[in-house]
Design goal:
By secondary structure, the chain is an alpha/beta fold. It is built from eleven helices and 18 strands. β8, α8 and β9 form a beta-alpha-beta unit. The longest helix is centred in the N-terminal third of the chain and has 15 residues. The radius of gyration is 23 Å and the shape is globular.
Length: 377
């Protein structure tokens, strides 16, 4: 197979398409897709469906069967060479008789990070790395950031009026956007490993923070719920919140400071809530400390559903990678609560740049996904 031509790109594009089927379902493992190519056509393909299930390469090899011998494996991420929940993929490629392996990107995880590529070459398999690497890194999202920067990918979700208000003068926000937008929010939740809010949002909205439809819009298909994280520096939230009730407590974390009362922490823990005591910054839970803890817990895709105070703090800390903005065709005026606080950028020349990654009409509302530039932070 020619790995530097349009055919190679077409096969890798298919592998990336397959990998996308696993997004939001595989953490803490990466979403990976693979195809086996022989005689210029795909004879086997697969993707990693969930943690603990067979990896993409194994699924593709099983489908290819004997046709894998002498064939080319095209895969979006370096095959693993270690024993985890499943055996090493490298061993499966060698046993199957794969002659060539085309890899989009090297796995940044310290336990892999080149070991798989070396093992393949030692076994006599020709290896090429770098085809469509940028697209592969983008698809890996939070997994890539967690193993290169020690933090998750953070998406700040906002529902605003046309003039950028998230609540009225009484801080009421239900409902700015319509039911179609709210259904899309549940899909964003289903694709996330954790949802983070502040104490103000928890007190005002008393949310459940559950995904009630998966990324494909199917309610029964939600395989898992994201971790629910509330920043409550001094543990002053009322215990009657739904997040602390019997059905939600075990999947809820409260992040607080070291000086929060031990009696309140114990009361939450007795309900099944997990308490994380973290360093403070500016009198509140440090965004960097919480982001690092989430990454260490294997929560690589984080949805920030906070109000302007917490969201602005994360943005100022350089931790917001994307803004998912739902805009309603309504105007509140100066009496409304703006979605963003001061960033310390007083001129257009210092404005935080980004690019529109996606946009769509969602019922009566508009949706835009903006990827913020890392260079401008």
């Amino acid at each position: 197979m020619r790995t530097n031509g349009s055919a190679a790109a077409r096969f890798m594009a298919r592998a990336l398409e397959l990998a996308g089927k696993g997004c939001g379902r595989t953490s803490p493992n990466p979403a990976v897709g693979a195809v086996v190519v022989r005689g210029g056509r795909i004879v086997g393909e697969g993707w990693h469906r969930c943690a603990g299930a067979d990896h993409a390469e194994v699924v593709a090899l099983r489908q290819a069967g004997e046709k894998a011998r002498g064939a080319t494996m095209v895969v979006t991420l370096e095959p693993c060479a270690h024993h985890g929940r499943t055996p090493p993929c490298v061993d499966a490629l060698v046993r199957a008789g794969i002659a060539r392996c085309v890899v989009a990107v090297r796995d940044p995880h310290a336990i892999v990070n080149g070991r798989g590529l070396r093992r393949l070459r030692q076994a006599g398999i020709a290896v090429e790395v770098g085809l469509m690497s940028e697209a592969a890194r983008e698809l890996l999202g939070g997994y890539w950031l967690a193993h290169t920067a020690g933090r998750p990918r953070v998406t700040w979700k906002l529902a605003v009026t046309l003039d950028g208000k998230v609540a009225d003068r009484r801080r009421r926000s239900k409902w700015i956007t319509g039911p179609d937008a709210r259904r899309m929010v549940h899909a964003l939740r289903a694709a996330s490993d954790a949802i983070v809010i502040g104490a103000g949002t928890a007190r005002a909205d008393d949310p459940r923070l559950t995904a009630r439809a998966d990324a494909r819009g199917r309610r029964p298909g939600v395989r898992r719920q994201p971790l629910r994280v509330v920043c409550d520096t001094r543990l002053r939230l009322p215990p009657a919140l739904r997040l602390f009730g019997p059905s939600l407590a075990s999947g809820t974390v409260v992040a607080c400071g070291a000086e929060a009362l031990a009696t309140r922490a114990t009361a939450l823990e007795r309900r099944g809530v997990t308490v994380w005591r973290l360093p403070l910054k500016g009198g509140h839970v440090s965004p960097a400390a919480l982001a690092g803890r989430l990454a260490r817990e294997g929560r690589y895709e984080v949805l920030l559903e906070s109000g302007p105070t917490l969201g602005t703090a994360w943005l100022r800390a350089g931790l917001v990678d994307r803004i998912a903005l739902f805009t309603a065709p309504a105007v509140l005026g100066a009496e409304g609560l703006p979605w963003l606080g001061p960033l310390g950028r007083g001129s257009l020349a210092r404005a935080l740049p980004g690019r529109i990654a996606a946009q769509a009409g969602v019922g009566r509302d508009a949706f835009v996904m903006v990827e913020l530039s890392r260079e401008g932070r």
